[in-house]
Structures are given as structure tokens and as C-alpha cells.
């Protein structure tokens, strides 16, 4: 009981160290409770597209679990550092390492009980709120409802107990390797002036530039996904090296600049930071990386969520889209008859015959046919989708009256941003591009694709068939010779219940009539619902991870201010004794804090700016092509985060001021 009472008194009297630690552990417990309850909710399995949504939340819960272990380890390290004097004093007063093991064990048990009681309780309470938010964001109904899953609560408690066991092992190891005298005088041990590591600073600069170069030179969305983590890893390494080695190099260069250095506003901050930059740099780099993660995570998921309507419109220019390799004249008549029967008006009906979407490998204006089944991902940057359509079909579809007088003339529409060539070579056949046309943009002939797509308007169907026979001569590629038929139309019904009933009935009528004909039936309403569920779930996950990273950033800043305040207190007392007044001390403190905390935010904004082209390419895979909307969302998120960062800076700066003024 003696050790339990002493442990309780330590926690109660040392609130400045233990309260932030306990708050972070309670938050992590609540976060894990919430995520595990959502990810394992039985209602998710009943949703349309349940597999993707379940995987999404499962992936998010795993990220939160890993983040919890990493961040708990970080906070334990900071806590141990702040308590070195205390443990050293106990050791000098007669407590051996075995007694210290017992003392810290009871401290961990008390912390664990507080964490589980408050963390699980708040996790359950916030889970109710989270369920309401998810239902709103994802547009789902009563199948997804809050249920208190005791097995999930047990799993969360076991996980948090495991984390505390890991933290106790870290604590015990630190006690085992410690020397009582060193612990007692830990705060009196000065820092040696670090050397300017030019080589590491240069490596950091090159690594960061390499990561930026990858982000800027990515050509296709598929390669953006494969190179994303490489770029992220390079930027993280570069950031840490620049903050640890590069910052010292910069500070020493500032010290050599006499006009800048020998100024009361700069002399003390620069000289102090040079000596303590070894312990400062890692924390500042961590703040920068976590800030970048908040900005990228929230802006990307918010961009997906707010761009959902554009995503749906890109994929479905019409309410109903039917595709087949056989004529759809019979199904067209079925649609008209069923609409008349149900007294529903169909509008903007399109019936189109084209080639299938053909895969080519392109270099400048030279296109060579490729087989999708044997295509390598390494060649995806050179890939292009090509659809061939006859001039008569084009004029009927667009109600235009264009003409082609020469066999080698074509019209072309492309999603490529910078196709400025006047000719197009398809497997050795050179065609003159008479004009690039834009009326095919909203026809649905080209769905959103990770590669550039082209619609080529040729003189007649005979020319198209001749080219196809020349391109695909083998049995394996014979399927590409079949034409593609598409029937698209809108449904003039605003009532959602009636729309669903009509679409369901129309689908059944098609199934009765089509017999053995192969066709795909897709409707915009179902796609919009699935997009809202996925994007809403993704946005919720982004908010949760953003909050987690923001908390980590806040606590790192807080711990940094506390440790800096303790270190600087004696130094500023001496400065006041030698003549510096209180107003000058405050100006120096303000200058030092601003110098330290402006760098992580500025670097984070720089990272995000260079990441935007990479994220832009990745969002194309989700059907988001509205770059302006995503840019606005990112700017809004950056502004909100900057305001929160400033608030955190002001609150934690007060802690620093109080410590120094004592």
C-alpha cells in the first residue's frame, strides 16, 4: 500500500507532467473505442458496397491503433524526461531500482484505471454522436444504428492495457540503465554546441527536392498511387534532416552575420537555439510532419466529399446508361413502352454505336494498339483509351452537320490537356485532324479514366471496321472487333421513392425482354448513393485522423514549451540581473517562440503546395476532375488549420511565459 499511496501522491502533485499524458491517453482510448465500434458495426455489412466501406473503416481503425502506440511511446518518453530529477532524488534517499520499479508500476496501474474509466466512457458517448454524423455524411438509414458491443469494449481495454504494459517496460528499462547522480543533476547538464553538419544538411535538401520532383513530374493517376508513398518517405526524411542538421547550419550562418546577430532581438534566441537545437529539431520536424498530415488528410477527404456531385455527373451524364455488344433497339422500345405505361417522361435519349474502348500505347502523336489483358502497369504513363465513331453517328448524336472529304481526315475529342498535334498515327496509319470538337464531352462515351482518352470521328463505319480488322488479327484479340452500343436517357421524376420504383421496374422489364443478350444496366441514383456512402465514410475517417494528428501536434507543442520554459527560466533570471528589463525579456521570448513555431507551419504549407499536383492525379481515380473545387477546399482547410495552430501557439506560449517569469 505504501507504493500505491506514494504513486497516487506523485500523480496528484506533479499535475503539470501527468495531466497532459493522461489527457492524451484518454483521448486515444476514446478514439480507438469509437473507431472499433464503427468498423465492426453489423449494420455496415447490410449496406450497398459493404465490402469497400468495411475495408475503409477497418483500414482507418488499424491506422488509429498504430498511431496510438507510436504517440503513447512519445508521450511516455517526454514524461520520463521531465521526471528524471524526481526519480534521481528517490534513488538518493534510499530507494533502489527494485523499489522504483514498484513505484512506477503502481503509477501505471493508477493511470491505466483512470484512462480506461474516462476513455471508454467518453468513447461510448462520442460514438453516439459519431453514428449520427456518419449517417448524415453517408446518407444511410436505420440499418446503421448505435449498439453497445461489449466484445469491442473488452478488446479496447485489452489493447490499452497492452499499451500501458509496453510503456512500463520502457520506464523500467530507463530506470535499469540510469545512474542516480546523473538523474538528480539532469537539468544542470548543459548542451554542447552542435557542429554544423553540412553533409547531412545537403542530403536533407536533396532528399526533400527529390520528393518534390516526384510529386511534380507524375504523369498518370496510377503512377501517382505507386509513387505516393515513396515521395512521402523522401519528404519525411528530408524534413527531419533539414530540421536537425540544416537548422544548425542556418543558425550558425546567422551568427556570422554581425548586423543580424548583434541585435538584442536576435542575439539571445539565435545563441540559445544553437545550443539546444539537437533536442528542438526532432520536435519541430514532428510538428511539421503532423501538420502536413492534418492538411493533406482533411483536404483530400473533404475534396472527395464536396466534389461528389461532380464525380457523379462525370460518370453519369444521363440518369440511365445501358451498354452492350449487341444492338439495343429492342431495349430502347421496352424503355419507351414501360415509361408510357407508368406515365413517366423520358428525355435526352441517346442511342450510339461506336467501337469498344481500345487501349493504345502513345508517344507524342504515334498510337500503337495494345492488349488490356497483357498490359504492364509500368507502361501506364504511355497508355491511352481510344473510341472510334462514324461521322453519321456523330452528327446524329450532336445534331451537327460536319463533313469529311478525304479518307485520312478525322475529327477528334480528347481529355488530354495538351494534345497540340495536327496529326494522329494509329498503328502506322496517319490521319489529319481536321478539327478538335467538344460536343462529345457529356455523351457518356468516355467515363472518367486514369489515362488520357480520345474519341476519333472517322468518315464511315466501313473505315472503322477495316482498321479494327487490321489491328486485331488473332483469336485472343477478336473480341475487340465487336461494336459497342449505348442507350442513355433521363427520367423526368423528382420524387425519390417513385424514381427508385421506376428504375427497379425498368430493370426487371429489361431482364424479361433481353433473353440471352448481354448488357449492363446502370443508373445515376444508385451510383450517387454509393458515392455518398464511400466519400462520406472517407470524409469522416479524414476528420477523425485529422483530429488525432492535431492532438499530437498540440501535445508536442505543449511539451516543447514546458521543457523550454524549464530550461530557459534560469537563463532569463541571469539576463535580468545583468540589466535586461522585463519588457525586453518579453520581446526576446516572443521573438524566440515565433522563430521556432513559424518554421514548422511554413514548411507544412510548402509540403502541401508541392503535394497538390500528386493529390490531383490521385483524385482522378475517384472521378474528381474539378481541380478548382479541390484547390478552394485545400485553401479553406489550410486557413482553418492556421487559425487553430495560432490558438495552440498562444495557449502554450502562456505556459512558457509563466514558467520563465517564476
What is the compact description of this entry?
By secondary structure, the protein is α+β, with helices and mostly antiparallel strands.
Characterise the protein shown here.
The longest helix has 54 residues, at 524-577. This protein is 67% helix and 11% strand. The protein is elongated, with a radius of gyration of 32 Å. It has three domains: 1-189, no CATH class; 265-318 and 520-662, no CATH class; 319-519, no CATH class. It is of the alpha+beta class and 662 residues long. A seven-stranded mixed barrel has the order 3-4-7-8-6-9-5. The chain crosses the membrane at residues 21-40, 52-74, 109-134, 146-169, 198-216, 228-251, 281-308, 538-559, 593-615, 627-648. Pfam families: FtsX. Keywords: Cell membrane, Membrane, Transmembrane, Transmembrane helix, Transport.
Shape: elongated
Number of domains: 3
Largest sheet: 7 strands, mixed, barrel
Q: For the largest beta sheet, what order do the strands appear in spatially?
A: 3-4-7-8-6-9-5
Number of strands: 11
Portion of residues in helices?
55-70%
H/E order of the elements? HHHHHHHHHHHHEHEEEEHEEEEHEHEHHH
Please give the alpha-carbon distance between the first and last residues.
Answer: 36 Å
- Helical stretch count? 19
Query: How much of the polypeptide forms β-strand, as a percent range?
Result: 5-15%
Structural class: alpha+beta
| Uncertain regions spanning at least 5 consecutive residues | none
Q: From the alpha carbons, calculate the radius of gyration and give it in angstroms.
A: 32 Å
Q: How confident overall, as mean pLDDT?
A: 78
